[in-house]
Write a structure and sequence with these properties.
The complex is a heterotrimer. In chain A, 68% of the residues lie in helices and 0% in strands. Chain A is mainly alpha-helical. In chain B, α2 runs parallel beside α4. Classes of the chains: A mainly alpha, B mainly alpha, C mainly alpha. The interface between A and C is large, with 53 and 60 residues.
Chain lengths: 117, 568, 179
């Protein structure tokens, strides 16, 4: 893994990034520990909560979006927004199990069954 | 040595103008194939069961392949490469006053990937069982199971070709957008950029933002086809409607991806040939952006009767009717531009005017389809088909002819024949209307799409309906018969046309400063910009045009910021 | 108003990648929500292997940003070394994944054995393809950077690499934790 830098004036910048990395590792540990509590809500909250925080940290500190021109953040944000639009428009369709005029006849296959035709 | 030179100059070039020509010629060649497919299947519809001259008998399976390939080719291998890639590549650096795209090698790569996609697609005609027959919309399970679509190799090649084409346009799009953002001539603010460049850039962003889910979906479809996964198969827990959503989430913005460049081309032409400033330039730009955004909220109007929740259908009806407003507004602004102008009916102008007229017909007929209630009856009938041809034909065909006849002098240094141009125009336009007006009627009267012989349905086998189908086919044959005039005009003018000079149309935008054709590097001296692109018939000026690069006149605040205070 | 052209291009590439992965992962999430019974299949993904790979990618992101830091100071050779560490991280990631997949396939969990596994292999596979592509580009950038040329590319490939890391940051809970 990365060597220690020689000049002290340069290690200042590097220390910052190593610190961020340590935080990310700690968050990773939290997300792995979450399921061990056994409560489903905790598992999901730690898993996705940590993911969002980690992603935010990587984006702002490693990709330097914190000092990038604002319109870049808006463009990337817009793409995410479109994904939310996609999910919102499609999920109600895909998630329905039955409706007024139809019902789902699909039965979950037994464990290990193949889908090959 | 000559071979080496030719290859380097024409096949391996990174010059945006050569790449533009590569896209243009590939697109026009694919249009011949797309046109041939429609000739064959319309002959089959008009004279069912009769062997089609130059082709032979058309079976049901062959018919499916033909309509599939017609739609696929015309949208992805004609409209997109010509309107977006060819005109984008040719015009953007020239109109922005720079010497090439910011990433010339990526540009070359994008064409090479595109060419590969075209080769893969054309190859699919020659594999056992022929080209894909599952419609250009490729709904599973028809598209996923070769036992249904009867084209095992064709269907896989189709998915691969489409995915490659998407990759090519993503590469090209990045080039267009970054060049437009970072590479403008000194003094050219965002609002001094010609409309066609704005439109192509907005279209590229729209494409980039919408194609992702479909690319993912195409990978899933490919796996379903080849490995037997069940992403879209209800028997494994998959969902065929998921594909529909993935497809149309892209498919609807896609129509604006091709519409906007066409509208941009028309804008340039009507300004020049009415010698008038574009009415509401900024409004047009904002409207185009707004349309692009709204286009992400309308996709399920293609799925009104696919079994989606009716409440969703209501929502999408509202958004679809809303999106007709900004486009209508843009058309009104174009008409306002023409109003009071000093109009010259050159060939490009005739095409531009016909775009406006024909597209309006397409637009208003779309209202009936955007409303879920009426769409229940009209979905999958020829009414839909006539509607989208009244939009797509203006976009892909009229838009192309407008742009080609307008910029031909710049591209090749010579003028096309006005006489042949006008004959070609009238023959094409009149015939076009005689193709699709009958189809509105037969569609409303019940003709279903993607049926190879309507006489199999007693209700549809009435003589007057068949007469209309025959009229449509004869009009198509007529229209196709006029196209050699264009091809002849094009090729002959390339070598024997009257010399054009730099600015035969007396236009303002920067590409007319460069020599015709522009050399490598475009400009002897890179221009500086002093005003917007549409200063035609300016007051107190003898000339009725005022090119962007000529100093003089009252500077705008932006120009002052660039040049400092100066005397008029 | 200007972002340097190379970096601007990378942002646009990422924008299109967001919707590609976004489309795929949204589809997965919808289907996963619809099929509660997939939990039975998902239980067979190895959380520790996933966590290890997450650690590997996070660390490779560290070396990538340190490479950028070095490039900013004009230290091309050091940037190249750090980029090569990043490539190594990517290599370890892909290697671990190959073993992981081999093991899962041997146990009978193939791409067709359940729609869960179809998504699993497709999503992780698409991601791995991006890792490999990133490694290739990084290799080329490192070679040039070692000669102190085109140092701006170090930041640009770094941004791409961080994005690949972020995608995995979401894939990890989706495929390994939220069972």
């Amino acid at each position: 893994m990365p060597q220690q830098s020689h000049a002290s004036v340069h290690s200042h910048g590097q220390t910052h990034y190593i610190r961020i990395w340590a935080i990310l590792c700690a968050l990773l540990a939290v997300s792995v520990a979450g399921p061990m509590v056994g409560i489903r809500f905790v598992t999901l909250a730690t898993a996705f909560g940590v993911a969002i925080v980690k992603a935010f940290i990587v984006c702002s500190q490693f990709m330097h979006l914190n000092i990038e021109k604002k319109f870049v953040v808006y463009i990337l944000g817009a793409m995410l927004a479109f994904m939310i639009v996609f999910f919102s428009g499609v999920a109600p369709d895909v998630l329905e199990h039955e409706g007024q005029q139809w019902q789902k006849t699909y039965v979950e296959p037994a464990a290990g069954a193949s889908t090959e035709h | 040595m000559i071979d080496e030179g030719l290859i380097k100059k024409y096949l391996w070039s990174t010059d945006h103008k050569i790449i533009a020509m590569q896209y243009l010629f590939t697109g026009m060649l694919m249009a011949l194939i797309g046109g041939f497919t429609v000739y064959v299947f319309r002959m089959q519809l008009a004279f069912p069961g009769q062997p089609v001259p130059l082709f032979g008998r058309v079976s049901a399976a062959t018919y499916n392949s033909l309509v599939t390939m017609h739609g696929t080719i015309m949208i992805f291998w004609v409209a997109m490469p010509v309107l977006l890639a060819a005109f984008g590549n040719f015009l953007i650096p020239l109109m922005l006053g720079c010497d090439d795209m910011v990433f010339p090698k990526v540009n070359r790569l994008s064409y090479q990937v595109f060419l590969l996609s075209a080769i893969v697609l054309v190859a699919s005609f020659f594999v056992p069982h022929g080209a894909f027959g599952g419609a250009w919309t490729a709904y599973p399970p028809l598209s996923a199971r070769s036992t249904y679509n009867l084209t095992p190799y064709g269907s896989t090649l189709w998915v691969i070709a489409v995915a490659l084409e998407f990759a090519a346009f993503l590469l090209g799009g990045v080039n267009f957008v970054t060049t437009a953002m970072n590479s403008r001539a000194p003094g050219m603010t965002m609002f001094d950029v010609p409309l066609v460049v704005w439109m192509i850039v907005i279209a590229s962003v729209l494409f980039m933002a919408s194609v992702g889910p479909l690319l993912a979906g195409a990978v899933m479809l490919l796996l379903d086809q080849t490995l037997g996964t069940g992403f879209y198969d209800p028997a494994t827990g998959g969902d065929p409607v998921l594909w529909q959503h993935l497809f149309w989430f892209f498919g609807h913005p896609e129509v604006y991806v091709v519409l906007l460049p066409a509208m941009g081309i028309v804008a340039e032409v009507i300004a020049v040939f009415s010698r008038k400033k574009i009415f509401g330039y900024k409004t047009i730009v904002y409207t185009a952006v707004a349309t692009g955004v709204i286009s992400f909220f309308v996709w399920a109007h293609h799925q009104f009767i696919a079994g989606i929740d009716p409440r969703m259908a209501s929502l999408f009806t509202v958004t679809t009717l809303i999106i007709s407003v900004p486009i209508a507004e843009m058309v009104f602004l174009y008409i306002a531009t023409l109003y009071g102008g000093s109009i010259t009916l050159t060939t490009p102008m005739l095409w531009a005017l016909s775009f406006i007229a024909e597209f309006m017909i397409g637009g208003v007929t779309g209202i009936f389809l955007g409303a879920a209630g009426s769409d229940i009856y009209l979905h999958d009938t020829y009414f839909v088909l006539a509607h989208f041809h009244y939009t797509f034909f203006p976009i892909a065909i009229i838009g192309t002819f407008t742009g080609v006849t307008f910029w031909f002098p710049k591209m090749f240094g010579r003028m096309m024949s006005e006489r042949l141009g006008k004959i070609h125009f009238w023959g094409t336009i009149i015939a076009f209307n005689f193709i699709f007006i009958p189809l509105f009627i037969t569609g409303a009267a019940g003709d279903q799409r993607r049926v190879y012989n309507h006489l199999g349905f007693p209700d549809l086998a009435t003589p007057w309906r068949q007469d209309l189908r025959i009229v449509a086919t004869m009009a198509l044959v007529t229209m196709l018969a006029f196209q050699p005039i264009f091809i002849f005009n094009f090729i002959r003018s390339m070598f024997k046309g009257a010399l054009a000079g730099a600015n035969p149309w007396r236009a303002n935008t920067l590409e007319w400063l460069a020599p015709s054709p522009p050399p490598h590097g475009n400009f002897a001296e890179l221009p500086v910009v002093y005003r917007g692109p549409y200063e035609y018939s300016a007051e107190d000026r003898e000339e009725d045009f005022w090119p962007q690069h000529i100093p003089g006149g009252m500077p705008t605040p932006a120009e002052t910021a660039v040049h400092g205070q100066w005397q008029a | 108003m200007d972002v340097p052209t190379g970096r601007l291009a990378v942002w646009w590439v990422l924008a299109s990648e967001i919707v590609i992965f976004g489309g795929l992962l949204s589809s997965y999430v919808m289907m996963r929500l619809r099929h509660g019974a997939w939990a039975e299949q998902a239980a067979h993904t190895n959380t520790w292997v996933g966590a290890f790979n997450t650690l590997v990618l996070l660390t490779s992101s560290l070396s990538a940003v340190l490479a950028h830091h070095a490039a900013e100071r004009g230290d091309g050779p050091r940037a190249a070394t750090l980029l090569r560490y990043t490539i190594l991280g990517g290599g370890i990631f892909v290697l671990v994944k190959s073993f992981e997949w081999t093991h899962e396939i041997e146990q009978g969990f193939t791409i067709t054995s359940s729609l869960f596994w179809s998504f699993y292999y497709t999503a992780a596979g698409l991601h791995a393809a991006h890792v490999i592509a990133g490694m290739v580009i990084m290799f080329i950038v490192a070679r040039t950077a070692a000669r102190n040329e085109a140092l701006h590319r170090v930041e640009n490939i770094g941004i791409y690499w961080h994005f690949v890391d972020v995608v995995w940051i979401f894939l990890f809970p989706l495929l390994y934790i939220a069972k």
